[in-house]
From TrEMBL:
CDD domains in alphabetical order: Precorrin_3B_C17_MT
Domain Tetrapyrrole methylase: 5-213
Protein name as catalogued: Precorrin-3B C(17)-methyltransferase
Alphabetized Gene3D superfamilies for the sequence: Cobalt-precorrin-4 Transmethylase, Domain 1 (3.40.1010.10), Methyltransferase, Cobalt-precorrin-4 Transmethylase, Domain 2 (3.30.950.10)
Enzyme Commission numbers on file: 2.1.1.131
Keyword flag Membrane: no
Domain of life: Bacteria
UniProt pathway annotation: Cofactor biosynthesis; adenosylcobalamin biosynthesis
Enzyme class (EC, first level): transferase
Lineage: Bacteria, Pseudomonadati, Pseudomonadota, Alphaproteobacteria, Hyphomicrobiales
GO biological process annotation, one example: cobalamin biosynthetic process
Pfam families: TP_methylase
Chain ranges passing through the membrane: none
A GO molecular-function descriptor: precorrin-3B C17-methyltransferase activity
Length: 253
């Protein structure tokens, strides 16, 4: 088999945050596969066939990519942010795991990208300076009881929590329920950040307390960060959001 498959992370949005290595993989590709808005971020050029698909068909998309690569094509599968974070890389390896044994011989590589959590953290200051974790609030691929059990565990462990996929049209109430759980475990003045469309033209960053956060609007392009007991705010001027950082040192209990 002479084809190849590269799973490429496009970063949060700004083309300057795409790695050179990812850009080179996109330049080599003959076929481009991914969710419509991510495929749209890659400029058209002669010799590049674009296969944009809807969001909910990740495994089909992965199989399609593997079939094309097995037929000798150079294929790039694209994801926003990092492709290994709640994105296509896991779908590709799941398809390999359960698919045609010949796919294991393919040249499959993953090009990392800057994930939303890191892009948002950089805008805020240093909220991930201590221990942290990332959770997807989506219950499309796991039961809601699993989401809440994990959320409670990490809130009790005093980790900073980054919430991906906080809300969508099909999941309008989950973020409110998650913040309710957080309010039952963490102090009302805990900093919470809503980082929307980070590194895109419509970026919006809001920082508030957990008590205020329950009223805050969010959408599919928002990453929500819930601070730990060691997360601090540094107020700044009018119209500027405060810096948010999490101290690296934690007092003995
Ligand atoms: N692979 C992606 C995450 C896919 S899950 C990554 O590594 O970033 C999709 C979720 O990521 C969105 O619902 C949102 O919570 C978050 N997200 C992706 N891009 C974002 C951006 N530019 N700003 C804020 N959040 C973003």
């Amino acid at each position: 088999m002479t084809g190849s498959l590269t799973v490429v992370g496009l970063g949060p949005g700004d083309p300057d945050l795409l790695t050179d290595s990812a850009r080179a993989a996109l330049d080599r590709a003959q076929d481009l596969i991914g969710y419509i808005p991510y495929v749209a971020r890659v400029p058209e050029r002669p010799g590049l066939v674009r296969h944009a698909s809807d969001n909910r068909v990740e495994i089909d998309r992965a199989r399609h990519a593997l079939e094309l690569a097995a037929s000798g094509r150079h294929v790039a599968v694209v994801s926003g942010g990092d492709p290994g974070v709640f994105a296509m890389a896991a779908a590709v390896f799941e398809a390999v795991d359960h698919g045609d044994p010949a796919w294991r011989q393919l040249a499959i590589t993953v090009e990392p990208g800057i994930t939303a959590m890191l892009a948002a953290a950089a805008r805020l200051g240093a909220p991930l300076g201590g221990d942290f974790c990332a959770l997807s609030l989506s219950d499309n691929l796991k039961p809601w009881e699993v989401v809440t059990a994990r959320l409670e565990a990490v809130l009790r462990a005093d980790l900073v929590v980054a919430l991906y996929n906080p809300i969508s049209k099909a999941r309008p109430w989950q973020l409110g329920a998650a913040l309710e759980i957080a309010a039952g475990i963490r102090a009302a003045e805990t900093p919470v950040a809503f980082a929307r469309a980070v590194r895109r033209p419509d970026e919006a960053i809001r920082v508030m307390t957990l008590a205020e956060a329950r009223e805050a609007p969010a959408d599919m392009a928002t990453l929500v960060l819930i601070g730990a007991s060691t997360t601090r705010l540094i107020p700044r001027g009018v119209g500027q959001h405060p810096f948010v950082y999490t101290a690296r040192s934690v007092a003995a209990r």
